Every structure is written in structure tokens, then in C-alpha cells.
């Protein structure tokens, strides 16, 4: 794999597609373990745009009945979190009494999931779980439990597999890291 340039920044290969798929399989197995035969039909909530690839690979692996809904949130500008979570496309389903599984590409500061969890609870969700492809363990300091996690990521800026740099790079099958941040 070679280094690539996106909007004037160089990125180098960091996590291969094989490892990514193994993480998706692991998360799917954990979800199946908790929900198969449970009688609960959760709402899988895809947090657009970043989670679309992870969610699209995860759903066909699920062996229990579930619904799919999407919401579009935005908190990043360039390579940094703004700390302010904007809702770009809202929810249009009734969540009263529902179990919701938030599917995220990455949890960094946790601002996004924190604001989302309180919004879903206000809308009547009784059980809200977090399922994230990746977690920046050293940055995340909030109290919300991360129920399902594909892999831990160092505090670095990455692109690919749904993750973007200024909306670019989401289509990459592997994950790349900013070249300056590779030790
Ligand atoms: P948080 O609200 O700080 O937890 O950030 C969550 C959102 O920021 C994610 O859903 C991503 O859209 C974005 N994000 C966080 N870290 C990265 C990264 O390393 N690359 C690309 N996007 C990121
Ligand atoms: Mg995102």
C-alpha cells in the first residue's frame, strides 16, 4: 500500500482491510450474542456520513430482527473536533419504548454520542447502546458506556472506511493515518 494525498495532506497505510473486517465480525458476533433470541427488535441507528460503510457491512451479519434508521450529525472541521455537535439530518421515527443501537465510525471526545444519547432518551428510547467501529481510548473521558467496539485507536487523525478528511477519503478500503502523526 502506498501513501496518498488528500486535500494537500499526506496519509500512509495504518490498518488493513483484513483487520477491519475481523473487527466487524467481532462486533457482529457480540451483537448476535446479546440480541439473537432476545425478542427485542432494536433500531440500528446509523450516524451519517461516517458510519455508512461500517453499518453497511455490519447489518448483513446480524441474525436478529432489527430496523434501520439514520441521522446526520457533524462535529468535525478538518482534522479537529469543534466540540459542537450539529444535526444536519434529523430522525423521523417514533422511538418510544425502543432499544436503539447507535452505530458510529469512531468515538473521539464523545461529544457526538453524548448529545445523541440524551436526544434519543428524550424521544422515549428505553435502552440506548453504543456500537462503534473504533474508539480513541486516550481521548474519551465521558461516562457513557461503550457497549460494542471494533478496535482502539491512538489519538491520531485517520481516514478511510467511512472516515473523512474534509469529506474526502471515505471510500478507502483500508484506514490511513496522517503521515506527520506516524511514529
Ligand atoms: P466526537 O464527537 O469527538 O466523539 O467525534 C466523533 C466524530 O468525529 C466521528 O463520528 C467522526 O465523524 C469524527 N472523527 C473523530 N476522529 C476522527 C478521525 O480521526 N478521522 C476522521 N473523523 C474523525
Ligand atoms: Mg461520524
What's the gist of this structure?
By secondary structure, the protein is an alpha/beta fold. 21% of the residues lie in helices and 36% in strands.
Descriptive notes:
The chain is an alpha/beta fold. The protein has a single domain, classed as Rossmann fold. Helix content is 21%, strand content 36%. It has 3 helices and 10 strands; from the N terminus they run ββαβαβββαββββ. It has helices spanning 17-35, 52-58, 111-122, and strands spanning 4-6, 9-15, 43-48, 67-77, 80-89, 99-107, 127-135, 148-152, 158-159, 175-178. The protein has a 6-stranded mixed beta sheet with strand order 5-4-3-6-7-8. Strands 1-2-10-9 form a 4-stranded antiparallel beta sheet. A hairpin with a 2-residue loop joins strand 4 and strand 5. The radius of gyration is 16 Å and the shape is globular. The model has no long low-confidence stretch (mean pLDDT 93). Magnesium ion binds next to loops.
Beta strand %: 35-45%
The main β sheet shows up as: 6 strands, mixed
Average pLDDT number: 93
Class of secondary structure makeup: alpha/beta
List the helices and strands in order: EEHEHEEEHEEEE
Any idea how many domains? 1
Head-to-tail CA distance between termini: 18 Å
Number of strands: 10
| Fraction of helical residues | 10-25%
Amino acid at each position: 500500500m502506498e501513501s496518498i494525498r488528500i486535500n494537500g495532506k499526506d496519509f500512509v497505510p495504518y490498518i488493513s482491510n483484513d483487520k477491519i473486517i475481523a473487527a466487524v465480525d467481532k462486533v457482529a458476533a457480540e451483537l448476535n450474542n446479546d440480541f439473537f433470541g432476545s425478542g427485542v427488535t432494536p433500531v440500528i441507528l446509523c450516524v451519517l456520513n461516517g458510519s455508512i460503510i461500517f453499518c453497511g457491512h455490519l447489518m448483513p451479519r446480524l441474525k436478529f430482527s432489527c430496523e434501520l434508521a439514520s441521522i446526520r450529525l457533524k462535529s468535525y472541521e478538518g482534522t479537529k473536533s469543534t466540540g459542537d455537535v450539529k444535526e444536519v439530518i434529523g430522525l423521523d421515527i417514533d422511538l418510544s419504548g425502543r432499544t436503539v443501537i447507535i452505530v458510529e465510525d469512531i468515538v473521539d471526545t464523545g461529544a457526538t454520542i453524548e448529545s445523541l444519547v440524551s436526544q434519543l432518551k428524550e424521544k422515549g428510547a428505553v435502552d440506548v447502546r453504543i456500537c462503534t467501529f473504533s474508539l480513541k481510548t486516550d481521548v474519551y473521558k465521558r461516562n457513557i458506556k461503550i457497549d460494542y467496539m471494533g478496535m482502539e485507536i491512538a489519538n491520531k487523525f485517520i481516514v478511510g472506511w467511512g472516515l473523512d478528511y474534509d469529506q474526502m477519503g471515505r471510500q478507502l478500503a483500508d484506514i490511513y493515518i496522517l503521515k506527520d502523526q506516524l511514529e
